Protein 1
Amino acid sequence: MEKFDVTVIGGGPGGYVAAIRCAQLGMKTALIEKYPSLGGTCLNVGCIPSKALLDSSEHFYNAVHHFEEHGIDVKAPKVNLKQMIERKRGVVKMTVDGINYLMKKNKITVFTGHGSFLTKNTVEITKADGKKETIETAKTIIATGSKPSSLPGIEIDKKRVITSTEALELTEVPKHMIIIGGGVIGLELGSVYARVGSKVTVVEFMDRIIPGMDGSLSKELQRVLKKNLEFEFMFKHKVTGVKATAKEVTVSALNSKDEKVEIKGDYCLVAVGRRPYTDGLGLDKIGVKVDNRGRIETDDHLRTNVEGIYAIGDVVKGHMLAHKAEEEGVFVAETMAGQKPHINYNLIPGVVYTWPEVAAVGYTEEQLKEQGKKYKVGNFPFKASGRARASMDTDGFVKVLADEATDEILGVHMIGPRTADMIAEAVVAMEYKASAEDISRMSHAHPTFTESMKEACLDATAKRAIHI
Ligand code: FAD
Ligand code: NAD
């Protein structure tokens, strides 16, 4: 039986990053992934393919709506969905190939098959052809990720009633896509199809989209999506069932007055969150505890209740984000090596890759109110940015929340062009406990979108923004 210092189960961004860091630290490392393609949800059916389609559909949207104003005459552009999906597959393949290369480079032994605990130090790998192999391991990191959730009364037939996985592989542009859930997946994939011509209806249980984020972002994103695309929103609607025929779907819901509502379309995307995935892992055999939501229980060192077994990423508590999973992978590897790493969960940024992009870090205004914290608000609208006017991206704003007494930045909430990249400045600032004035006194290249962060800080620190 081959012996390893550490075995990682799951080859997503949590698992493969953990494996690389373990190998860098000198541990003999195995990685078990049940699919032939490494990279997990993120690379295969998540972050990367969704961003590839978001980029393609955004090009199409600009060709239709903005080229003429820019002085570019093209004959009426048409969508070639087959080619968009094909290009997306190419991007995924290139990215997955990169991970294969990294595994070889770091001398990580990759096993393809389903991993399952026999004892706390032996893991069995069942290959696709049913053949089994067993390895011995001193320590194990569980990084088995998550799968889409559904709701009672909904059968996901993967044809008309679909999850994000199928939405990345459609063969036609839907006429009317009904999306259950106005969260990240619903709005990103809804944007893809709305840009290429679908009517999109979002049915959301809460009273706003992206409910976990600062309320000002929900409001502005809703406004812009409605203005630019054929998006319709039905809030405070509780979906009770979905029926599908060969060509049609009917979504039933109860509105806020408890009246029954029916919506008809040709596709229904169910995007109501994801559930941790531990099927067939053999946790019961070794006594690893899970909580009432099926997440593996861990302490603040990401240790499970069984000695030598750690868990990271979507399968444990916290935001289901690739970069959170990666941080946790590094954290566990370094902890095992006797180091003292640290993760500041409050400073893990959240991004929604719509256009305009939405990005945030730290506390929301709602959270600060709830804590009874005294704070100042700085705002800067992109319509006052020269860079945004040049690129015709004037929707949105940067909002900075700072402590009223100390001026320390407590939260940054952005909606606008390239805010997904801009938010990194806010993370660095907050990690170093910068005040709004600190940022406002640093030079930001002109003309860039990042000047809006400086201006919002000027507004927060002493209401002295220059360009508003
Ligand atoms: P996963 O990526 O889910 O990987 C787990 C792996 O474990 C899988 O490959 C699975 O096959 C394997 N596995 C499970 N059980 C076993 C077993 N018993 N044996 C062997 N292998 C097993 N996050 C972002 O930060 N940014 C984004 O832009 C973003 N976009 C997304 C878009 C979509 C459409 C979706 C669905 C998700 C998106 N996410 C995004 C979330 C992100 O994909 C996840 O947070 C991330 O993949 C979690 O990483 P993980 O390693 O914990 O799990
Ligand atoms: P989500 O939690 O972001 O949104 C789910 C939405 O569904 C919520 O707004 C919720 O109120 C709503 N909902 C729940 N039950 C409902 C019901 N019965 N009827 C109507 N609405 C209902 O989940 P998601 O969009 O499915 O995404 C899953 C995970 O994937 C998220 O945790 C997210 O972090 C991750 N993800 C991240 C990104 C990114 O970082 N850009 C992109 C895609 C996915």
Protein 2
Amino acid sequence: MKVLIYDDAEQAVASAADHLIAVLNAKPDAVLGLATGGTMLPLYQRLVALYQEGLVSFGKAVTFNLDEYIGISPDHAGSYHTYMRNVLFDHVDIDLSRTYLPRGDCEDAATEAAEYEALIGASGGIDLQLLGIGQNGHIGFNEPTSSLSALTRIKTLTQDTRNANARYFEHFEDIPKYALTMGIGSILATRSCVLLATGVAKAQAVAAMVEGPVSAACPASALQLHPKATIVLDKDAAAELTLTDYYHHVHPKGAESVWN
Ligand code: GLP
């Protein structure tokens, strides 16, 4: 795991954006795995700004989102389809026919999950997966006790996760109880991943992910098994780490390591 710690959230966001742009500029038709949530909002804002400056194009990219709520349609205000259109897709040169999210309003969620996983495979696999982290250590919607090898499937959301996402829905009872999510196995199969976490509310989950045992109790800890996982943090999200001196030594101010 590469652990990059920045002084503030703005620098962390800029770093995560740079990682994505580097992949896209090296391979314009890259397959990108996208994430949602509040942490990702400034990241998408930055990507839109960089696109407007002509520094990146999404014109040939293919995207797969991690997850979607079951039981709501793509045009529902709280859906991740809507989120992605609002924060990224409507503002860059992406070809909407190459953007994929699981359909939450599908007839048969199990079939939808299997087809989604197959589509990722048929697209050649994900070059770079963006990830956030929930306060309970979930990634995508893989809640604690999720299988560490499962592929895209149906997950039941915890009450805590429903509470954390309540802001996207008018009434609490409107918040879906189930989601379709890429599994930890799907995430571990990506060629590289960048997890962005900012703010002290994520500090405990980040410490469990980076320095705790690999355990389904903290699904994000499975990233310790990923051959190319970069964890991008501001100092608040890094506050509970114990090997901070080492991370700063290897990557001073988030820089790439230099050895000679
Ligand atoms: C949701 C998403 C996750 C995201 C998490 C954290 O549960 N499914 O992909 O990482 O929220 O969101 P936030 O960044 O708002 O804390």
